[in-house]
């Protein structure tokens, strides 16, 4: 991970204490540009729900640790490459 990579991530405000974490290297019109939704709780912890990378949610004490985790997930998703969809088993049409 390069130190400059962190600059490709942007926080876009949604409300007073919630943001959308976006990857600026992806077109804003592409849904995969949204990496996660972030919310700041009263206890100072950032809760993240991963959207285009990773699965589930995580909690972070600092924005820096959140950004670094997001970059790791982005790197992993690139290394996996595109997935071939699973084939749907063929069923013959029902005869009346």
UniProtKB/TrEMBL annotation:
Superkingdom of this protein's organism: Bacteria
The protein's name in its UniProt record: 2-isopropylmalate synthase LeuA allosteric (dimerisation) domain-containing protein
Organism: Microbacterium helvum
């Amino acid at each position: 991970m390069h130190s400059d990579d962190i600059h490709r991530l942007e926080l876009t405000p949604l409300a007073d204490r919630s943001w959308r974490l976006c990857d600026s290297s992806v077109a804003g019109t592409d849904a995969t540009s949204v990496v996660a939704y972030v919310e700041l709780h009263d206890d100072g912890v950032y809760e993240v729900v991963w959207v285009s990378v990773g699965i589930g949610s995580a909690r972070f004490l600092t924005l820096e640790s959140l950004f670094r985790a997001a970059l790791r997930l982005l790197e992993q998703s690139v290394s996996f490459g595109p997935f071939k969809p699973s084939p749907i088993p063929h069923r013959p049409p029902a005869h009346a």
